[in-house]
Design goal:
The protein has 395 residues and is an alpha+beta fold. Helix content is 45%, strand content 18%. It has helices at 2-5, 16-26, 36-41, 44-48, 73-77, 108-119, 147-158, 165-179, 190-201, 203-213, 218-228, 234-248, 250-259, 263-273, 331-347, 371-391, and strands at residues 56-62, 80-87, 92-99, 124-131, 142-145, 277-281, 285-290, 307-314, 317-325, 360-369. A five-stranded mixed sheet has the order 1-2-3-4-5, with helices on both faces. The protein has a five-stranded antiparallel sheet with strand order 6-7-8-9-10. Helix 10 (203-213) crosses helix 13.
Length: 395
């Protein structure tokens, strides 16, 4: 991430990544939590005219002194801010805390913010919480940016003919690496659909297989020894077969195990929409859309779901975000879909504040639902959207 933001690196992108991030963050509704000076600073025309010729990029900046020499490496890492971009001449400080799976520790962001205020007084400070799970930061001075921005930016640069082939390949590999866990970038590959189908139908068997095969290191040898000692029984032979099967494609089966948590969604929705269901299921998130909505898309070979319900799994509770994504929508349909979304968004009885950017916006948010309630809500949302889009002549 620091390589991407550093204009002195050999990628040839200059300061595009930082400007793009700031423009994206400046369009979030959370900006209203900031003081007037910061709100004005994040206006697009200001960002595009920033002087960044002396920009410096730091990683893992320590903002607190080590408490003791015996502090563990894990605790020490928690006191390191991931990326800090400094422009000493114009006195600008951009803090980026990047969460790729780990949760926010208590008061972590507040401590970082207070540490930067103390270390860089007089600087214009902007705080970015870049999280693949799109969690809300506990400190409201941090602006939440999901990996949708990162994937969109990388894809845009890959299509720039001025970028060298080597850099384009690097950006593509970077995007592939993070896209597997992104909350916006959807994949409709045959393998992805097959994994979802298997996970939905055989969740208990997959869980049993992973429990048998997942031990590693010395535990792997102990598990194999225990299984081998019981081969006279049918259960022992079955365990050995599952053990071997797991280790032939362990990453694949781990993915199936993770997706099994969305099995109830797949079974119910697939039956309800009779082959029209389009879905993308990741480890802790799933997107549900309809294939008939693909008529709204410009490039059908590579696209984002134009209308979708995103489901986030948090332990045994589920958060739902019904949203519209205009990034792949045909130009002639964009304004009509934007107007449609605004009307739905205005009438939605949601207790949670929907998010909005220039190209993507939530039209309804539901949080903390049980699995059964979440399945019913997704089905209801898709039905409502299908009927409403038809009545508006959009599909």
């Amino acid at each position: 991430m620091a390589w991407l933001f550093n204009p002195s690196e050999g990628h040839g992108l200059g300061d595009r990544a930082l400007r793009s991030l700031l423009v994206f963050a400046g369009q979030l509704e959370n900006v209203q939590n900031l003081d007037r000076q910061s709100q004005d600073f994040l206006r697009p025309h200001n960002i595009h005219h920033l002087a960044l010729s002396h920009m410096l990029v730091n990683i893992e900046l320590r903002l607190e002194p080590r408490r003791t020499r015996t502090a563990s490496a894990t605790k020490s890492k928690k006191n390191l801010l991931d990326v800090v971009v400094l422009e000493p001449v114009t006195k600008l400080c951009i803090a980026i805390e990047n969460k790729f799976g780990a949760g926010e520790s208590p008061d972590q962001l507040k401590r970082y913010r207070l540490g930067l205020e103390k270390r860089f007084p007089g600087f214009q400070r902007i705080y970015i919480f870049l999280d693949k799970l799109e969690a809300e930061p506990k400190d409201d001075q941090w602006l939440p940016v999901g990996y949708s921005w990162l994937n969109g930016f990388l894809l845009e640069q890959e299509n720039d003919p001025a970028i060298s082939a080597d850099v384009r390949r690097t950006l593509s590999e970077f995007r592939d690496a993070v896209q597997d866990e992104d909350e916006e970038s959807t994949s409709t590959s045959t393998t992805s659909r097959l994994i979802s189908s298997v996970a939905a139908k055989h969740g208990e068997a997959i869980e049993a297989m992973c429990a048998i095969g997942r031990p590693k290191g010395e535990k792997f040898l102990d598990a194999l020894k225990e299984i081998s000692a019981n081969l006279r029984s049918a259960e022992g032979r079955a365990s050995l077969s599952l053990f071997k099967l797991y280790h032939t494609r362990s990453l694949l089966w781990d993915e199936c195990r993770q997706r099994a948590r969305f099995a109830a969604f797949f079974n119910t929705l697939n039956e309800k929409f009779h082959g029209d269901l389009d879905s993308d299921v990741k480890r802790v998130k799933a997107w549900y859309s309809l294939r008939s909505w693909k008529s709204l898309v410009e490039n059908k070979d590579e696209y984002f779901f134009p209308v979708s319900v995103r489901v986030s799994s948090r332990e045994e509770r589920f958060d739902l975000y019904t949203y519209i994504d205009l990034r792949s929508v045909r130009q002639d349909a964009r304004e009509a879909l934007r107007t449609f979304g605004a009307l739905i968004r205005k009438s939605a009885s949601s207790k949670n504040s929907p998010r909005r950017t220039a190209e993507t916006f939530d039209i309804c948010v539901r949080k903390g639902l049980s699995r059964a309630d979440a399945v019913k809500e997704v089905m209801g949302q898709l039905e409502f959207l299908r009927d409403s889009l038809r009545s508006q002549g959009l599909t």
